[in-house]
Amino acid sequence: MNAGIRISEIFYSLQGEARTVGRPTVFVRLTGCPLRCGYCDTAYAFTGGVIYKLEEVLREVASYNPKFVTVTGGEPLAQKACLPLLTSLCDSGYEVSLETSGALDISNVDARVSRVMDLKTPGSGEVEQNLFSNIEHLLPHDQVKFVICDEQDYYWAKTQLENYRLADKVADVLFSPSHASLAPGLLAEWILRDRLFVRMQIQLHKYLWAESEGR
Q1: 118, β-bridge pairs
Q2: Cα–Cα distance measured from residue 1 to residue 102, given in angstroms and rounded to the nearest whole number
Q3: Which residue from 99, 102, 120, 205 has the fewest beta carbons nearer than 10 Å?
Q4: Domain ranges in the chain?
Q5: pLDDT at 74 over 70
């Protein structure tokens, strides 16, 4: 952390996804990502950003007096400084979640963090980047997310759900329709038809702030 951490933005908003959906949350968006998913809505975070010292991040987060903090990207784990940042946020008493692609090792993430691991479906264009060994490191308070672009993605995600017994490993398995590709009602019908033990979600922020990229 002596060299700092590159951050695209720190902002206060409602959580749009996962278990704390709707909760006021501070988001710390780190710059950089080794993946290029076809549906990505935060490409502006691939480059640029501002170098922060750890204490500067903590001070800005504290200014919002939050309960929930989400570290996101880009791919936050692409920066080594993400790990001490996560630990410092936990030490500060926040409920901390990490949004990660599942392509990078999660084993060293502070165990207090709720890891929301996004396994990349074929429709993302990055399915080969999945690091399936991460699954053995998941804890009961973690979450696994699948962004579903089409029926092929749905069956692929269903196979991973069953083969890895994900619903028994984590707090929630999240099935999310790709906002521009799949009608939410259709995904809901498939889940009900197949009696899947998953939580369907839509991106709340896309409906509240339709013109705001990434929020």
Answers
A1: 145
A2: 23
A3: 205
A4: 5-208
A5: yes
For the stretch 198-202, contacts whose Cβ atoms lie closer than 8 Å and that sit 24 or more positions apart, written own/partner, are 198/161, 198/167, 198/172, 198/173, 198/174, 199/172, 199/173, 199/174, 199/175, 200/174, 200/175, 200/176, 201/17, 201/18, 201/21, 201/174, 201/175, 201/176, 202/176, 202/177
Check: CB of residue 145 under 8 Å from CB of residue 119. Answer: yes
Q: Percent of the chain scored above 70 by pLDDT? A: 96
Let me know how long the chain is: 215
pTM summary value: 0.93
Q: Domain 5-208: give its CATH architecture.
A: Alpha-Beta Barrel (3.20)
| Nearest C-alpha neighbor of 6 from the set 53, 43, 41 | 53
pLDDT at residue 127 in the model: 96
Backbone angles phi, psi at 68, to 5 degrees: -110, 135
Residues 173-197 have pLDDT tens digits of: 999 999 888 999 999 999 999 999 9
